[in-house]
């Protein structure tokens, strides 16, 4: 009899469910894809139903359901944190009690009732063990060092460990409140972005600044030889307030926070057309924004220094050259790009859902391997674990909505038609196969465009994304051609496949891929035929037509919405946006 384990993560940010059957991932998805609420943290009822349906089982057939953290341990930490900072923490006390006493402490009951499983099947896994398991067990390594880093789990904010065969041992932990993830989030808030969401924006802003405030950032944080840090808590309030993460002393050091409603641009980012005419005080705004870009560059520089120090320590301690990385900080793709180049680690594995949503997968794998002692057998080679839709379902939808379409029964023709549309500067909504696991679109729910001219950034932005001009678009490149265009040592490595590594763009080719070249770097995705045949063939055909085997790939969603999941989501996005072509499997809809 096969062993079926469901992992769940929720109640913090971006809830998810993952189902493994005999250690192999059967299904995994974030709740937001189905509920259509961006970063939906609520109990992932829809994701769970999908996972069970995908595997063709009922909840009764589950052997275990595992939650990705230990609520009582986390609650204890929050209580201690409140007591240590009382009376400043009075407000935190009230909001925490409301959340915990009414909901979070009852997770076992909630799982029993809503998944319909008995209490004896419900297990809990330590948060950072779940992160560690999510990175090590799906990796190709039999032995590897493990680094987990995030805002905070129960007490841990980061751990060092080793995985060997089917066992993980975490040998050192860094504890709350001295958290690199939280430090980065404080700057995310200061720079006017939403915490847990805007960290990408800080990273995108950083290349436009100079890290001239590194010394100031280091007033807040002491870095030790093992990479662990100590924050000077007199600058912060995240440990005592539910709303604010820094205080007046922080503002005396860094000035006023950036107005979150202001537009961010510098001379180098340009001022996109869809924002209209330049403001009268453009020069003044550029000057103000440059200051914040320099702050972003400074926190990014210090973050990289800390991560690289951690990696060097971990490599020396373990003597290993393989590294598995997980936790929200592992999504800092710029730092990831430097690990293999600047530390003794030679190989890096990052699972696509490296943040808390991936904790659901890690928790399930942890039980399978570590608790039940099953052998490590499967490697994760792609990120397509979400929902797929059959031809008949799509056809029924199109007919019901009276949508005019063309069906290309021959895949070769389909690919030619789409590649030609890209060459003609059309922006294409590309929907096929199972949706992606994790925050990146990897060619199954993607918006695609021609990357050759810089103007395409503005075109995609004015048609659909409306993103700030400093945010990069990513290239998807044929794996065998990746080295021609990008300074990537190993195009087959998972961080490159999953778009979680930023590398320099080769100077000789940068001019050919202007729309995906971000200040001399690219967050690339390498694509091979075995992993995603249709997507690979499309890029290849585009390469044949243009001489550039690279396309611009960005996630298929409207700004502020989750990535599309169903044909209906895709069509709605197509209609509401300026997308020119919609591809639903082999059906093509044009405007
Ligand atoms: Fe986490």
Structure description:
With 591 residues, the chain is of the alpha/beta class. The chain folds into 3 domains: 4-127 and 354-371, ATPase, nucleotide binding domain (Nucleotidyltransferase, domain 5), CATH 3.30.420.40; 180-349, ATPase, nucleotide binding domain (Nucleotidyltransferase, domain 5), CATH 3.30.420.40; 391-590, Carbamoyltransferase, C-terminal domain (DHBP synthase), CATH 3.90.870.20. The protein has 20 helices and 22 strands. The strands form 5 sheets. Strands 13-22-21-14-15-20-16-19 form an 8-stranded mixed sheet, sandwiched between helices. Strands 3-2-1-4-5 form a 5-stranded mixed sheet, with helices on both faces. A 5-stranded mixed sheet has the order 8-7-6-11-12, sandwiched between helices. It binds fe (ii) ion. Residues 127, 131, 150, 153, 327-328, 356 line the site of fe (ii) ion.
Kindly estimate the percentage of residues that lie in beta strands according to DSSP: 15-25%
The ligands bound in this entry are: fe (ii) ion
- Biggest sheet, open or closed, and with what strands and sense? 8 strands, mixed
Using only C-alpha atoms, the radius of gyration works out to 23 Å
**Could you say which structural class the secondary elements and strand pairing correspond to?**
alpha/beta
Give the total of domains: 3
Q: What is the CATH superfamily classification of the largest domain?
A: Carbamoyltransferase, C-terminal domain
């Amino acid at each position: 009899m096969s062993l079926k384990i469901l992992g769940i993560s929720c109640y913090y940010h971006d809830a998810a469910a993952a189902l493994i059957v005999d250690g192999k991932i059967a299904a995994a998805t974030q709740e937001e894809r189905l509920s259509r609420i961006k970063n939906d943290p609520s109990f992932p009822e829809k994701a769970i139903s999908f996972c069970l349906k995908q595997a063709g089982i009922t909840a009764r057939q589950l052997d275990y359901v595992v939650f990705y953290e230990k609520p009582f341990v986390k609650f204890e930490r929050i209580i201690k944190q409140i007591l240590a900072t009382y009376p400043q923490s009075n407000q935190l006390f009230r909001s925490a009690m409301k959340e915990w006493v009414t909901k979070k402490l009852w997770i076992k009951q909630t799982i029993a009732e809503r998944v319909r499983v008995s209490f004896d099947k419900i297990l809990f896994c330590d948060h950072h063990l779940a992160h560690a398991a999510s990175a090590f067990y799906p990796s190709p390594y039999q032995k590897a060092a493990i680094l987990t880093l995030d805002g905070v789990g129960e007490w841990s904010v980061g751990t060092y460990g080793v995985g060997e065969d089917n066992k993980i041992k975490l040998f050192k932990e860094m504890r709350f409140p001295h958290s690199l993830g939280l430090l980065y989030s404080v700057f995310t808030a200061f720079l006017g972005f939403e915490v847990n969401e805007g960290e990408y924006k800080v990273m995108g802003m950083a290349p436009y600044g100079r890290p001239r405030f590194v010394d100031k950032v280091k007033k807040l944080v002491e870095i030790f030889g093992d990479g662990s840090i100590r924050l000077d808590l007199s600058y912060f309030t995240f440990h005592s307030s539910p709303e604010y993460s820094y205080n007046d002393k922080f503002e005396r050091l860094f000035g006023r926070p950036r107005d979150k409603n202001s537009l961010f641009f510098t001379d180098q980012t340009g001022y996109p057309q869809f924002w209209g005419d330049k403001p009268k005080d453009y020069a003044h705004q550029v000057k103000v924004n440059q200051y914040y870009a320099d702050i972003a560059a400074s926190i990014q520089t210090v973050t990289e220094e800390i991560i690289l120090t951690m990696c060097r320590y971990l490599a020396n301690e373990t003597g290993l050259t393989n590294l598995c990385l997980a936790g929200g900080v592992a999504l800092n793709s710029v730092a990831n790009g430097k690990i293999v180049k600047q530390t003794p680690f030679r190989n890096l594995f990052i699972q696509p859902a490296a943040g808390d949503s991936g904790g659901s997968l890690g928790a399930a794998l942890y039980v399978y391997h570590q608790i039940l002692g099953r052998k490590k057998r499967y490697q994760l080679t792609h990120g397509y674990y979400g929902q797929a839709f059959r031809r008949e379902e799509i056809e029924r939808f199109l007919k019901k909505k009276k949508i005019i379409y063309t069906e290309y029964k021959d895949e070769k023709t389909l690919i030619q038609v789409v590649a030609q549309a890209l060459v003609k500067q059309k922006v294409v909504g590309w929907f096929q196969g199972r949706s992606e696991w994790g925050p990146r679109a990897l060619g199954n729910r993607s918006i695609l465009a021609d990357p050759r001219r810089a103007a395409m950034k503005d075109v995609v932005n004015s048609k659909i994304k409306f993103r700030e001009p400093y945010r990069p678009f990513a290239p998807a490149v044929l794996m065998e051609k990746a080295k021609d265009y990008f300074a990537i040592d190993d195009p087959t490595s998972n961080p490159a496949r999953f778009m979680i590594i930023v590398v320099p763009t080769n100077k000789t080719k940068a001019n050919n891929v202007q729309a995906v070249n971000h200040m001399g770097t690219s967050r690339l995705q390498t694509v091979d035929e075995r992993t995603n045949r249709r997507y690979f063939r499309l890029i290849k055909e585009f390469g044949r037509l243009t001489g550039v085997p690279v396309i611009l790939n960005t996630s298929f969603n409207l700004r502020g919405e989750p990535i599309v999941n169903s044909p209906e989501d895709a069509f709605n996005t197509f209609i509401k946006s300026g997308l020119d072509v919609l591809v639903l499997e082999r059906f093509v809809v044009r405007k």
